Amino acid sequence: MCFCTKEGKLHNERNFPFVVSANWHCNGVLERRMVKLSVIICVYNTDSDMLEQCLKSVRGGLTDTEIIVVDDGSAVSYAQLAQSFGAKYVRTENCGTLHARLLGVSLAQGQYVAFVDADDEVSFCYHSGLCAVAERENADIVLGDWAFLTPKTAYMCQNDSTIKETFVTSDCLQRYFQHAGQEHSWYVLWNKVFRRTLLQQACQQVQMHPIGRQVFAEDVLITFFAFLYASRVANVHLGYYFYRLHASQQTNVNSFERFSAHVSQSAFVFDVMRSELEKLPQNDILLDKLDEWKNFSARSLYSSGKGAGFHDVKQFVQRAFGLQEVKKATFSDDKAYRRHMLLPQNTAEIDGVLQQLCLKKQEAEIFAQGVYSRKTVLAISDILHLPFRLCDKHSAKVVLPREKYSAWQKILHGSFAFFVATALFPKGSRLRRLLKQKL
Fold this sequence. Notes:
Elements: E1 3-4, E2 10-11, E3 17-20, E4 26-27, E5 29-30, E6 35-43, H1 48-59, E7 65-71, H2 79-84, E8 88-92, H3 97-107, E9 110-115, E10 121-122, H4 126-136, E11 141-143, E12 146-149, E13 154-157, H5 161-164, E14 168-169, H6 172-177, E15 192-195, H7 196-206, H8 218-229, E16 233-235, E17 241-244, H9 256-277, H10 284-307, H11 313-321, E18 340-342, H12 347-360, E19 364-367, H13 371-383, E20 388-390, E21 398-399, H14 407-412, H15 415-424, H16 430-438
Parallel strand pairs: 6-7, 6-9, 7-8, 11-16, 12-17, 19-20, 19-21
Antiparallel strand pairs: 1-2, 2-3, 3-8, 4-5, 9-15, 10-17, 11-15, 12-13, 13-18, 14-16
Helix pairs in contact: 7-8, 8-9, 9-10, 9-11, 10-11, 12-13
């Protein structure tokens, strides 16, 4: 619960000051209206065009949604842009991504909560599919499909278990640790919806620890507690979260200061997880998986720092993680990302037609010309229960655009090309980052 102060600011339970935009009515206590979904977008000096595309994609969804933009003390204000999409805008002092996320959760009113990074986008049906499965399966957390987005293409990683499998499980924490850090889709916030009451409980537990200005690995801190308290977890294959690769990403390590913060903050998160797991009965397997994850993370950070040309990286990582030895990342560490499947270059065009059909909620006989189109039509029919049916071209009332793919992109994203790029360009190197961003 948040209250107005005499100065016109608000404070949450941790006495954390922030101000709200004019479209968020406040009369002593923030006005609360139950909606299906709250989408939290944390922003810090993000390119305005990227944020606009992000807001446009979220607002174009099919679910009753409130959008909360939490500005972590950016140099410019995004209030006008946020309000143009009907979003609630909250500006805070710069205290790091974790505090911004916690603030957003404390203000959320939806039955479910999702996070979208300010430089990313989502399919029009993405969050509606997540919420539909959450209700159907009575799930506390639902994971969705995701794809990397570059200026040239969008592609998903076929080896990722959240993409290639379909599951509903009560073994929530066991599934969370199953891949020991090698599949980031389990640990990030952005490809999920959470039951709000569960997420608020998780965030309360996060705040029981001495968190500082956490910018790196804050996703892991929140998702760990969410999976710890979850009773049921599921996934769904409808639409995509588009994770944009670009030069100004916060996760890019372009200075030793950022690298050292990444290392120390990651080590802190592992200490928190260990302290909580040690309280659980029969925790041997989970602790072993945590150690495996910790070593994997140390290898990855060491290789990234070395590839970036920083000095004394190995000793620094060893001290921070409390390890006797840290080795460089191996080829098998990237196994979840080896097999790429390209999405159509005209995905937006195809989705635009389907979005209009969904909004009409009328029966539609559709001719789909490609794997992506057929998969999406069938998923909309099955998950959202809309009267869509695939048929041949002659009897179809709606003909979707033919899917377009670049032959050159197919070569670049093949397994052989991935193997060559991994061998030639070390993890963390500038050339490797450029390749990921440009291809």
